[in-house]
Amino acid sequence: MNNEYDNGKFFEEYAKMPRSREGLSAAGEWHQLRPLFPPLQGKSVLDLGCGYGWHCKFSAEKGAVRVLGIDASQKMIEEAKRRNKESHITYRLCGIEEYEYPKNMWDCVISNLALHYIENIEQIFQKVHRTLKPDGIFLFNIEHPIFTAGVKQDWIYSKEGNPQYWPIDHYFMPGERKTYFLGCDVMKQHHTLTQILMGLLHHNFELKVVEEARPPAEMMDIPGMEDELRRPMMLLVKSIAKK
């Protein structure tokens, strides 16, 4: 994950987000992501880009006996240790690209809203396949290609300040995208839908579930949430490592 998350101003604003304050229950995609988790009783779980450690804690609560959460942000790791400490969970300061991915180590690899910071996503798919046990689960949530291809990842607004439409440009040109998020310039990586799904297939994953995140009905009264139905923001994928 990029170093913006160690920027004091950025991290302060990130901490104010509902998903930061309240955890998984405040994440609009959680009602779709939660059912995709496999049974974790007695299993080992690796979380790529663990952030505050919410998914690590969930995995431990579901019976995982070994959980490793890695993140490239020192501030994120410190917060994870403070908020979601558990005897079965280890947090480690390490980038997704730098982790060693030991062969046949993990039963389940998860990643939530981190892979869109990775330039060579297929290389990570290859490494995840190596580190998963046979028939291990790779479950991730990534910003949707429609979202990452958005011009500055923002709406075009009317004179009155209302969102008119979501502009998309250079969709078939993967690579770096500069966005403005939480008061800071943030660099992300755009990947097409073909790159993501075919990348998994090319590295011997079997696709089990592909879903586009839609906020639940009970969140529709939150300001701006209805606009989330006008274009997809996140892509949820569950796959199995075939060996």
Q: Your description of this structure?
A:
The chain is α/β, with parallel strands linked by helices. Helices cover 24% and strands 29% of the residues. The protein contains 8 helices and 11 strands. The protein has helices at residues 8-14, 18-22, 30-33, 54-61, 74-83, 121-131, 145-148, 193-202, and strands at 44-48, 66-71, 89-93, 106-112, 132-143, 156-157, 163-165, 175-181, 184-190, 205-212, 234-241. The strands form 3 sheets. The protein has a 7-stranded mixed sheet, sandwiched between helices. A two-stranded antiparallel ribbon has the order 6-7. Strand 8 and strand 9 form a beta hairpin. Helix 6 packs parallel to helix 8 (193-202). The chain is globular. It starts with 7 loop residues before the first helix and ends with a strand. The mean pLDDT is 93.
Quick structural gist:
It is built from 8 helices and 11 strands. It has helices at residues 8-14, 18-22, 30-33, 54-61, 74-83, 121-131, 145-148, 193-202; strands at 44-48, 66-71, 89-93, 106-112, 132-143, 156-157, 163-165, 175-181, 184-190, 205-212, 234-241.
Topology:
Elements: H1 8-14, H2 18-22, H3 30-33, E1 44-48, H4 54-61, E2 66-71, H5 74-83, E3 89-93, E4 106-112, H6 121-131, E5 132-143, H7 145-148, E6 156-157, E7 163-165, E8 175-181, E9 184-190, H8 193-202, E10 205-212, E11 234-241
Parallel strand pairs: 1-2, 1-4, 2-3, 4-5
Antiparallel strand pairs: 5-11, 6-7, 8-9, 10-11
Helix pairs in contact: 6-8
